[in-house]
Write a structure and sequence with these properties.
mainly alpha; 8 helices
Length: about 200
Amino acid sequence: MQQHCKFASARVNSVGRGLTRICLITIVGVTLSACNMTMGGAGGPAEGIGYRQARFAEMSAMKAWRDCRDQALSLDRQARDSGQPARYLASARALETCEANAGPEIAALNTEERMRASAVASLNYLKGGDIERARVSFENFQGHFGGQDLLFADGSSYSETMDILLGLSEPQSVGAFSIANVNPELKSELRRVRYWERQ
């Protein structure tokens, strides 16, 4: 009989340990899954909605800017076709208006696109004959885009070309044009003008 009690007692202990293990595993599993749900849900959906709303606002502002820019560039095409200075000035003003109306949402978006539009505005002021506005527009370009530069199709630098054309950096010698990254035809013309100014 004592042997039978020991055996029954051992069975109860092993069943008790088994139940304890199962309960412990279940509690640990539920706890870990609850932590996982909390970590994944702590701001996930709410943060996703806020991010989507901000992204939508950015994209809407960028689309409005691009629509405005496209209208201004159509004025630029008309100016090139007609050669009328007034159309160049209208295009430049329209491009500057696009940038001025753009909100802070697009400050870091498509920088190169915005740089090109700003460069076209400066060049169009120059082509339209408003040198002072071209200078102000170019200085705004430099201030907005932190010393970044664009290259023309021939590889010459937009910034260096505008510096020389606007007289912002007066080279002291004819040789100074040699190191400037400016269109070769422009260099030649500027050398010719400089030569005749000295005579």
